[in-house]
Write a sequence for this structure.
């Protein structure tokens, strides 16, 4: 019985917080909900992004929904790589992992 309790206790943190570098949800709407990423506010700022409150519910206070436009000139934005990019994917210009990149529309 004790081992089951420890197992269930170990699962609690996984259900309490959304994944860091995950999709925005909560009160995020429109493009932010579709293309935003949950990252630390300092990370978002270091990439020149904008944060949205309430887009990463249940995460720590310093994790917010980050959106970033103009990651590679005027016609670009950071977005998830599982969505279409009508241009060229550019790496290293957006916060998050390899599945979140800059789409250069030009």
């Amino acid at each position: 019985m004790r081992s089951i309790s420890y197992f269930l206790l170990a699962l609690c943190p996984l259900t309490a917080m959304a994944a860091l570098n995950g999709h925005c949800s909560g009160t995020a709407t429109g493009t932010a909900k579709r293309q935003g990423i949950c990252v630390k506010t300092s990370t978002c700022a270091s990439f020149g992004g904008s944060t949205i409150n309430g887009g990463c519910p249940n995460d720590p206070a310093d994790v917010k929904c980050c959106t970033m436009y103009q990651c590679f000139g005027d016609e670009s934005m950071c977005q998830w790589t599982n969505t279409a990019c009508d241009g060229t994917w550019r790496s290293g210009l957006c916060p998050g992992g390899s599945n979140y990149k800059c789409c250069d529309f030009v």
About this structure: The mean pLDDT is 86. Residues 2-104 form one domain.
